[in-house]
């Protein structure tokens, strides 16, 4: 496994994957096949390994075993946090923090490259949450609202009749009588600076992949950063909890995702 941070271009990453025979790719880190003619492939591949040799990640046409091991872990992580982080310059990156219990790595993919660094096997949440851009916690009170009402607010739909279908959430206008709905509508109407979401996933002993049913979502508004989490109520109905997001609450939310998904295995 990698022992120091390294950045690898997408083409070099794909060249190693092809030569190492790692067929599976993580959805977040998937790199398309190069637009190279078959006659030109050998020269293209050589250029990628030359790039890797310059950073100590290849010897001739052989990739460093630490890089190959890291690639294999990221393809099928036994335990992971993954998602996307949006920065305030409108750039969004993909993120995978993966662990096999002995080693762990944080991978960030942008338009040009994959940026990899080793992390503590029990530090997935810290690594992933640490990528978020600085932002103050949102100003205001927490909002607790049924998922159905949150869906209405997000879609801008009027209060539905009993036979109306639910709408997808977070997309604004609501029943003016409910203060929680009004508070959520006002928040979602603010200019948005960025945001993202994280999921946890695990593989069981049979290699079957299980993913969090609901993500941890954060949004950065002019009033600050807010955390959105879906929770089951006592009667089984889903609720949306929206609250000012602090570094501690985000870290707790990410660790909660990991705890919930591992409890399902």
TrEMBL record:
Q: Where is the signal peptide?
A: none
Instruction: Please state where this protein is localized.
Output: Cytoplasm
Q: Which UniProt keywords apply?
A: Chaperone, Cytoplasm
Instruction: Specify the species.
Output: Kutzneria buriramensis
Q: Which family does it belong to?
A: Belongs to the EspG family.
For this protein's source organism, the top of the classification is:
Bacteria, Bacillati, Actinomycetota, Actinomycetes, Pseudonocardiales
Location of the region described as Disordered in the Swiss-Prot/TrEMBL record:
138-176
Quote the InterPro entries the UniProt record gives: EspG
Give one Pfam family, short name only: ESX-1_EspG
Name this polypeptide is given:
ESAT-6 protein secretion system EspG family protein
State where composition is biased (Polar residues).
167-176
């Amino acid at each position: 496994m990698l022992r120091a941070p390294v950045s690898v271009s997408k083409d070099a990453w794909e060249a190693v994957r092809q030569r190492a025979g790692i067929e599976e790719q993580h959805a977040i880190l998937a790199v398309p096949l190069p637009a190279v003619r078959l006659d030109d492939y050998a020269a293209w591949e050589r250029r990628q390994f030359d790039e890797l040799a310059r950073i100590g990640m290849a010897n001739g046409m052989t990739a460093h075993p630490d890089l190959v091991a890291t690639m294999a872990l990221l393809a099928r992580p036994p335990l992971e946090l993954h998602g996307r982080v949006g920065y305030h310059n409108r750039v969004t990156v993909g993120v995978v923090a993966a662990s096999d219990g002995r080693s762990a790595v944080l991978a960030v993919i942008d338009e040009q490259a994959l940026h990899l660094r080793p992390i503590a096997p029990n530090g997935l949440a810290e690594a992933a949450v640490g990528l978020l851009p600085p932002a103050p916690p949102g100003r205001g009170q927490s909002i607790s609202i049924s998922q159905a009402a949150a869906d209405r607010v997000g879609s801008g739909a009027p209060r539905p009749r009993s036979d109306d279908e639910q709408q997808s959430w977070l997309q604004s206008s609501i029943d003016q009588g409910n203060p929680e709905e009004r508070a959520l509508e006002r928040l979602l109407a603010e200019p948005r600076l960025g945001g993202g979401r994280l999921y946890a996933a695990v593989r069981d002993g049979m290699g079957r992949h299980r993913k969090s049913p609901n993500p941890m979502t954060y949004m950065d508004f002019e009033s600050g950063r807010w955390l959105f989490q879906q929770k089951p109520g006592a009667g089984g109905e889903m609720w949306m909890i929206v609250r000012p997001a602090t570094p501690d609450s985000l870290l707790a939310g990410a660790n909660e995702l990991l705890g919930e998904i591992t409890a399902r295995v």
